[in-house]
Write a structure and sequence with these properties.
With about 250 residues, the protein is α/β, with parallel strands linked by helices. It has 2 domains: about 1-150, Alpha/beta knot, CATH 3.40.1280.10; about 180-245, Trp Operon Repressor, Chain A (Orthogonal Bundle), CATH 1.10.1270.20. It has helices spanning about 20-25, 65-75, 95-100, 140-150, 160, 165-170, 195-215, 215-220, 225-245; strands at about 1-5, 30-35, 50, 60, 80-90, 105-110, 125-130, 180-185, 185. The strands form 3 sheets. The protein has a 5-stranded parallel beta sheet with strand order 2-1-6-5-7. Strand 8 and strand 9 form a beta hairpin. Helix 7 crosses helix 9 (about 225-245). The chain is elongated. The N and C termini lie far apart (about 60 Å). The protein binds ligand 9D3.
Amino acid sequence: MKIDILTLFPGMFVSPFTESIIKRAVEKGLVDINAINIREYAEDRHQQVDDYPYGGGAGMVLKPDVVIRALENTKSADAYTVYLSPQGKKLTQEIVRDLSRHSHLVLLCGHYEGIDDRILSLVDEEISIGDYILTGGELPAMVLIDAVARLLPGVLGDDASAGEESFTNQLLEYPQYTRPAIYRQKEVPAILLSGHHEKIRRWRLQQSLLKTLLKRPELLLERDFTAEEKKILAQMLFEREREDEKN
Ligand code: 9D3
């Protein structure tokens, strides 16, 4: 996948993609990430990229001719263009999955000052990462790239890619432990040391269900329960009843 980012701050994109998993994906040639300075497409002698808003008001607005030149020069025939903006559709794992199927993404980073509205006709989708105010679309673009890149074939190991099911599955992760078995008097649940793989699998599912119910109950409203999950939930309720009877 090719990813081109149009930004006034290309330097911001250096370190996030030269570390860890994304770095390896770049090295393997699975993703080609390019940050392009919008200013390169300014044609006047001051390399001006923004101007005062018509009608007045605070701040500046990115000039349509400069940004449109940048977009037209960057887009390929199969490019899919995303404008990162606070007014966009909130990024979800489903959108991430759809984006990961494109061969070329062009990401236009919004700016605190805003862009000339006529630029929007060259954009396929407007995306926000959530309802809080940032200073620009650069960090959201990095979030999007990180989320998309890890879905590309070969980026994660086989072990890790199976783990992708967890959010698709809409359950939170079960608790994990490593050595030592007792740390500051806190013990690892005995079941995990038992070697009973089937019991461990069921315990983990139970923990995932319980944690989701307690921390993110709304996730459960968006999915159905399997027969096994219903059985586990019924068992938990039954055990709670018996605890109540004792008290
Ligand atoms: C609140 C009024 N605005 C400032 C004059 C609007 C505004 C425009 C641009 C506020 C912030 C920004 C900069 N943010 C982004 O470009 C952005 C963003 C964000 O702020 N939050 C979540 N997702 C995104 S994607 C792009």
